[in-house]
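hi support,

uploading two proteins for the ticket. first:
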Amino acid sequence: MLVLSRKKMEALLIGEEIKITVIGIEGDKVKLGIEAPENLTIYREEIYEAIKAENKEAAVVDPDALQELLNLPQK
């Protein structure tokens, strides 16, 4: 992990297309501004982890429910 120190209104670059700027510091919170291409999706880590967990749960197939669907009469 790279650890950097930045002051208010200082920035760092990730590659040539992503710029992260420290907008403000309030107590133990830091406000960041992120400039990135529109096609790049940016998530807070806790939201990303929740999405992954929901996707994993949605991918689980209930064998009984699947069998019921397979036994439905064809229209």
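and the second one:
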Amino acid sequence: MLKSLIVGIDPGTNLGLVVIDDNGNIIDKISGKNIQNEDIIKYISNLKYVVLIATDKKDIPKTILDIASKLNIGVYSPKEDISLEIKNKYYKNENLKNIFENSHEFDAYISAIEALKRLKEIFEKAKRFSENQEEYVKILRYILKNRKVEVVSAKNNLKEKEKETKKHNKKRKRPVNKKDIEIIKIIIKNKKDQKEKEKIVEELNKKYIDLLSDYNTLSKILIERLKINDNVIPKISFLYLNKLHYSKIFIDEFKEEYISYYKGKDVKFFVKKENLIEARSIFSRFYVVDEFKELKNFVIVEKFYEENSNASEKNVDGERLKKILKDYREHRLQNIL
């Protein structure tokens, strides 16, 4: 049976921590005074299958952000602080009174169980599409860190990353020849110069680390600079989530809100060859891409052709568009399953 864990944390001088599984069962609890972040990180690292850290605050406490960042795990926070009215229902529960020793443990539990209630559908979908325990945990961690990502997309992205990792690991190290040995000797001899180079690299890293770590920020900058290149086209998912407009759009996901937002605007739509039938049902004119290179927020189109369908865009109303996209998603799911 597939299993995952959620850790609720109530930070502060008196800290409370509760671990539950994806069925809401209480696995473990901790509370105490002046517990250090390092101890919490070590504790969570030793647990198997933790996929989420939860808080009862709208504004995520710095302690939780630091812990989640070091563990590379997503954080759940409610849209508004969990109210005392909701908490009182848990405080008055006789079974919970026998388990928890103080309000900090109660609040940590409430954070975790409320997160599970709000995200239950994600856990259930991940279970349906996961082939084993390891994949289930990987998919959940990926989705709960990137909340906009669908389960199928997360699964495919993880598979692509695994392929790249395996491909990279297969590469053999280039054998050291005599010329390399001479170069190494020169480097060792000139340690002072090497230290200067390292200092320069370190300064450059500090200057650009924030920009390079944020793909969306970098992609927004590239949009303006890449307009001169007709073959570099941004994905509709990236444009929509950042509310950007562009003259050319590559449809990487057929979502109703994406299509509705850009349909009717003066843009050229590009679709994969395997999505030709769906595109014909929605657009009267579009471009079919035969060959392209995949980037994070863009594609480099190498070969494409124009397609004119018999459908009139004016006749594709909202309800019909929903049905077309629903049929498309169901068809994709059947192929996957």
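thanks. also noticed: The chain has two domains: 5-165, 223-336.
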